[in-house]
Write a structure and sequence with these properties.
heterodimer; A: alpha/beta; 15 strands; B: alpha/beta; 8-stranded mixed sheet
């Protein structure tokens, strides 16, 4: 230890006369690029008055002869009677027809599995690993999918575009607003809509990865995959919290204060006071951490009651919420829990039995959930079924009536309007006809719960985007030139 | 069944449905009539039809009686859980060499009348289906099966009722990758069937050339090449339909088009050949390159052109037949034509119209009493009769709902 006095002397000398280091040139805080915000450009349209119709608002209020006024992309007025058209307004006499909010489908693969089905366009499942929470459906979305515009003609104005269910955690979804004429997903992305996370229970991931000898081969492996993913996400989230805290402190330190000397650029040890380094960017864990923070909504493909219970338990374990189960044909077996925990259920009426996990599906699922006070939603998962969500709602009601379970017309319509809006976290913007909401409105040729009803006119953000009476060229570029009216018999 | 039991059963099955509107199935309707079902048949239909003294009387006021609906291409009874191969008997997969041309395959051999799907489909007014194999260029023959759900259901059925096959893109892939391959194999099979038919003895004595198919298959093709048994071909593209029509003419075959998305483009030719088209109205979308010219009003266009129209539903949606018919009406098909397209239309297309398809004296008493418009989503089948026997309403789904209904407390009404 004979060197100790010398070191001590050096330290004392440093104290006595600190070396005069020049100001450090500090690094800027790390860049964490974020996808660009949606392009919020509602189409221009004249003020539009829709009158002489039964107006279902999906709020519980029905105007048996009412009107809706659309101004600047928003609903300006809903009420009884024919209303008053502002100067220059387009006036549409619904001739005793019916008006509803634009329908919303919580479960679509349009744009990522487009029509016509081709190998080249299969873009909905990144089945290279069971957890791909870093991928985004919007990256693959093809706005020219002809199915999109057929859905619009079915009165559907908003869809959630989900990755498929091949993976346990399939990736981020986005909410698309079906305004035609756009050439990017970003231009169709609904501003203000949270993104979703597609998760899948059961047979699909198990079948695919099991057949390759990979986890998950069983439901055990599947839940373990979910648990391990959220544990890693929790650790990532913690590292992110620490970084955010340290960055906030650094920013505070380096914000010039009036009247005070400029903040020192060096730490007491003489090193430059650079901003903290963020944890290495991991887009997959970032998505899951966003779920833990409640910023990304969980949209979970899950059929069986026991599996939904498993996921709800897991969610509680890690402190996140499931926004909606999808398919969920056994939701009626845990209707009370779903109601109590505020989980929406996106399901069908008469799809069941095509695989074991769908074997206990009943047509009364929706009616039973409605009875329990849960939020049932009729979804499609199909580019064909999406065109008739209103009919599916009607069938769900008829099925319930056989057991004395009924609902009003307006409540039934909520299953394809207000409830899906809630399931997607866009209930403040869409789903009902209320002053101030986006003006997505459908005029129907007959009662929308009738098999004979077709959407006559469809408005998105106040603009008339579909009119059955007008023969217009197809909205999809893909279909141009194929359909030749002269060929018709 | 003993003679005594038979008598009792027939006596019990006498039913008089009174003051009912009858949508006959042939496009006509009768208001406020009485329909008498007796001995498994429709005995009488009319204002003054006498109700037998011991008949069960049913008040039909405000209700509609239709023939039971008929689906002509179904996997009902052949497939329980699609993704569980051990429960699937809808034909030999065409991906295997032995599955490509198997006209001797009989759906009837694998038909399970106790399928859990049958009561569920019957709940929507279907009283019989043609259960058909679905794979391959020639998949085999279908069986017409009443949906009683009883083990002896087929004792009352008919097999074979049609030969089923496919000639579109899927078939082309199975046949080696090209459409020409499909027709090559079909022509070969039909030529061999004719040759075998004429030279069975020589073949038996090993004095005849090799044949492309085994004798059981060639036997099964005999009624097809003789124009007695319909050949139902799954095909969508207009040009493929024209090829099929030419083949049918050349071979003297009774053709039925299944799928037929672009059939409306060749409606004139189909009408001239009196070739029926089985169409699923909800599926008129450009789902594949063979369907690029899909139109929602295809059913209406075909009907207008005089093509015998049959409405079907997709295999995945086994009980949506009446919804499909209603949808066709929304897209312009006259309502009576839509109802015919799920009753008399399918019966005629497959030669079953002597027995079923209309509510008329002498026909089988396969009838359904509806709470209202049978095509409307709010209506329900209140009573379903098959051969005059009222069918139970129990389904597996109803049992599940009963079990859980009481466990779900009703939510408090929202203020």
């Amino acid at each position: 230890m004979n060197r100790a006095p010398a070191l001590l002397a050096l330290a004392l000398a440093a104290c006595a006369a600190p070396p005069k280091l020049p100001d450090a040139k500090l690094l800027p805080p790390a860049r964490l690029p974020q996808p660009l915000a949606p392009v919020a450009e509602p189409p221009a349209h004249p003020p539009t008055l829709l009158k002489n119709a039964t107006v279902f608002t999906a709020t519980g209020k029905v105007h048996s002869r009412g009107h809706v006024l659309l101004v600047d992309g928003r609903i300006a007025e809903v009420g009884d009677g024919d209303g008053v058209a502002p100067p220059g307004a387009l006036v549409i006499d619904a001739q005793g027809g019916f008006i509803t909010p634009g329908l919303i489908d919580t479960h679509s693969h349009m744009g990522v599995y487009p029509m016509p089905g081709t190998i080249a366009h299969e873009d909905g499942n990144e089945m290279t690993a069971p957890v791909t929470s870093h991928v985004r459906s919007e990256s693959a979305f093809w706005p020219q999918d002809p199915a999109l515009w057929r859905a619009l003609a079915g009165g559907v104005t908003t869809i959630q575009v989900l990755p498929g269910s091949g993976n346990v955690i399939g990736g981020r979804s986005f909410v698309a607003h079906l305004a035609p004429g756009k050439t990017s997903a970003r231009a169709m992305k609904l501003p203000g809509a949270p993104e979703g996370l597609k998760m899948a229970c059961g047979e699909n991931p198990k079948r695919f990865y099991g057949s390759k000898g990979q986890q998950p081969m069983s439901r055990m492996g599947l839940v373990a995959t979910m648990r391990a993913s959220f544990q890693k996400a929790e650790e990532y989230r913690r590292a992110r919290l620490r970084y955010e805290r340290d960055l906030a402190a650094w920013t505070e330190r380096h914000t010039p204060k009036e009247g005070a000397p400029p903040p020192p650029t060096r730490r007491p040890d003489g090193m430059p006071d650079d901003p903290p380094e963020p944890p290495p960017r991991d887009y997959a864990l970032e998505t899951l951490a966003d779920v833990l923070d409640g910023k990304v909504l969980v949209q979970n493909h899950c059929y069986r009651a026991d599996e939904m219970n498993q996921v709800l338990d897991l969610a509680q374990e890690f402190g996140f919420r499931v926004r909606s189960f999808h398919h969920a044909v056994e939701a009626y077996k845990l209707a009370d829990r779903l109601a109590k925990e505020g989980v929406a259920v996106s399901t069908w009426v008469d799809w069941w039995g095509f695989k074991m996990e769908s074997f206990d599906g009943v047509a009364q699922n929706v009616a039973l959930l409605h009875r329990a006070g849960a939020r049932p939603v009729l979804h499609s998962d199909s580019a064909i079924e999406v065109r008739r969500l209103n009919q599916e709602a009607a069938k769900a009601r008829t099925a319930g009536r056989a057991f004395g379970l009924d609902a009003s017309d307006d409540d039934v319509l909520r299953w394809v309007t207000a409830n899906p809006a809630w399931a997607l976290g866009i209930e403040d913007q869409l789903g009902t006809l209320e002053r101030g909401k986006r003006a997505d409105v459908v005029v129907w040729s007959a009662h929308p719960l009738s098999v004979y009803a077709l959407a006559r006119q469809v408005f998105v953000d106040g603009a008339l985007v579909y009119d059955r009476a007008k023969h217009a060229p197809p909205l999809s570029d893909f279909e141009l030139g194929f359909v030749d009216g002269k060929e018709l018999p | 069944m003993s003679a005594l039991a038979l008598v009792v059963s027939l006596a019990l099955s006498q039913v008089a449905i009174e003051h009912v509107r009858v949508e006959v199935g042939d496009g006509t309707a009768l208001d406020d009539v009485t329909v008498v079902l007796s001995g498994g048949k429709v005995q009488a239909v009319g204002k003054d039809a006498p109700a037998p003294a011991n008949a069960q009387r049913v008040d039909g006021r405000g209700k509609v009686l239709t023939p039971g609906f008929i689906e002509v291409h179904s996997t009902l009874g052949l497939k329980e859980v699609e993704l569980e191969p051990s429960t699937v008997d809808d034909g030999l997969p065409a991906t295997r060499p032995e599955g490509l041309l198997v006209p001797g395959y009989r759906a009837a051999d694998g038909f399970n009348p106790q399928s859990v799907w049958i009561p569920w489909v019957r709940e929507e007014g279907l009283t019989s289906v043609v259960a058909a194999p679905v794979h391959g260029l020639l998949a085999g023959t279908g069986v017409w099966a009443p949906l009683t759900g009883k083990l002896d259901a087929l004792s009352d059925g008919k097999s074979p009722v049609a030969m089923f096959g496919a000639v579109g893109a899927g078939a082309a892939e199975a046949a080696g990758g090209a459409r020409g391959g499909v027709w090559l194999r079909l022509r070969e099979a039909f030529a061999d069937a004719r040759a075998y038919g004429k030279n069975k003895a020589a073949w038996e004595q090993n004095r005849w050339r090799a044949l492309s198919l085994a004798p059981l298959h060639l036997e099964a093709l005999q009624p097809v090449v003789q124009g007695k048994l319909p050949l139902v071909l799954d095909v969508h593209r207009a040009s493929d339909i024209l090829t099929a029509l030419a083949f049918a003419k050349e071979e003297g075959v009774r053709l039925v088009i299944l799928g037929g998305t672009e059939a409306y483009l060749v409606a004139k030719q189909l009408a001239a050949a009196k070739t029926p088209v089985v169409l699923v109205p909800s599926e008129q979308v450009p789902g594949s390159f063979e369907q690029l010219h899909a139109r929602d009003d295809a059913a209406a266009l075909l009907s207008k052109a005089g093509v015998p129209l049959v409405i079907g539903c997709s295999d995945f949606q086994k009980r949506r037949l009446r919804q499909e018919a209603g949808l066709a009406v929304a897209y312009g098909l006259p309502r009576n034509a839509a109802l015919s397209a799920i009753t008399l239309g399918p019966a005629k297309a497959l030669g079953l119209d002597q027995d079923v398809g209309t509510v008329a004296p002498g026909k089988r008493a396969d009838v359904v009493l509806w709470s209202g418009d049978p095509l409307e989503l709010s209506s329900v089948a209140e009573r379903v009769f098959i051969a005059g026997e009222e069918q139970p309403k129990d389904t597996r789904q109803r049992a599940l709902v009963q079990r859980y209904l009481m466990r779900i407390p009703a939510a408090k009404p929202t203020p």
